[in-house]
Amino acid sequence: MTPFVFACVACAAIMHAGWNAVLRGASDRLWSMTLMMIAVAGATAIGAVLVPWPNPASWPYVIASAVIHTGYNLSLVRTYRSGDLGQTYPVSRGSSPVLVALGAAVFAQEAIGVVAAIGITLVSGGIVSLAFQGKTVRADFLPAAFTTGVLIGAYTVVDGIGVRLSGNSLAYSNSMFLLWSITMPPIFYAMRGKPPAYTRAQTAMALTGGIVSILAYGVVIWAMQHDAMGVVSALRETSVVYAAIIGRVFLKEKLTARRITSCLAIAMGAACLAY
User: Fold this and answer.
1) Higher confidence at residue 211 or residue 120?
2) Structure pTM?
3) Which of 32, 116, 233, 267 could anchor a disulfide with 26, C-beta 3.0 to 4.6 Å?
């Protein structure tokens, strides 16, 4: 991985942790997710006028990714109802790099080197270990968290293949984000009907989180044109380090010695991926 691509994905990881912290800290996470998607819909509708459409060969992947992302939205909201950011986020994100590497090997015939494989293992192991409390992991949030991780792995592989067929990563990203974002408002109104009372600050925070989310993942989609999906995915998931810090500073969650050690393992894995 080149230093420039590494730096871009590392910045995307920080942004990704940020918008997840916004969602975890929201008073009504389903409505906040819906507001995020409204912001994404507005931005990508403008983008649709300014950027070209992707090649037709990539459209099945655009559609498949949008569907998977919709399931991911709902699973993520459910996950954050039952656990801290510092616990649920690592389980969701930690399971995906290995799944992406396996999916890329099967569906895109990607092979990774020994150092990159060590890096993926360190990142995934460090991420999952962040979820432990002592010698145990709370079981109540695990089904939703692992479901979220599987969906992350699925849409990452789909996007990694799709963007390579699209001819233009920006065109692919914008089309997928647009199709994905318009699904959430109807789902919210079908489930809830009336939105909750939000202050202007809460609304602005959620809308900003939506824009940050597409910037973060748009960088990842672009990076998968230049490097192996598993490597990019593992580096992106170093965002759990930033999530742990954000959870401690802003959400008053505990930052234990175990979590610090896990973060060091993730950092070592990231260094391997940059090798």
Assistant:
1) 211
2) 0.79
3) 32
Q: How many domains does the chain have?
A: 1
CA distance 40 to 44: 6
Mean pLDDT of the chain: 82
Our CA dihedral for 214, 140, 31, 171, rounded to 10 degrees, sits at 20
**61 or 10: which leads in pLDDT:** 61
Six-digit token string for 212: 């940050």
CB crowding 259-273: b at 16 or more within 10 Å, else e: beebbebbeebbebb
CA atoms of 89 and 79, how far apart (whole Å) = 9
Residue 47 has pLDDT above 60, yes or no: yes
Contact 80, 29 (CB under 8 A): yes
- The Cα–Cα gap between 65 and 177 comes to 9
Find the domain containing 67 and state its range: 3-273
Place of tokens 């960088």: 219
| Cα-Cα end-to-end distance for the chain | 7
Retrieve residue 154's tokens: 């699925």
238-249 pLDDT, tens digit per residue, is: 776 776 777 777
**Phi-psi region for residue 252, left (φ > 0), alpha (ψ -120 to 50) or beta?**
left
State both tokens at 267: 């950092």
Q: What are the pLDDT digits (tens) for 214-239?
A: 999 999 999 988 877 877 877 776 77
Residue 28 is given by DSSP the state S
Q: Per-residue pLDDT for 80 more than 90?
A: no
Task: Extract the tokens encoding 48.
Answer: 């649709």
Radius of gyration of the chain (CA): 18
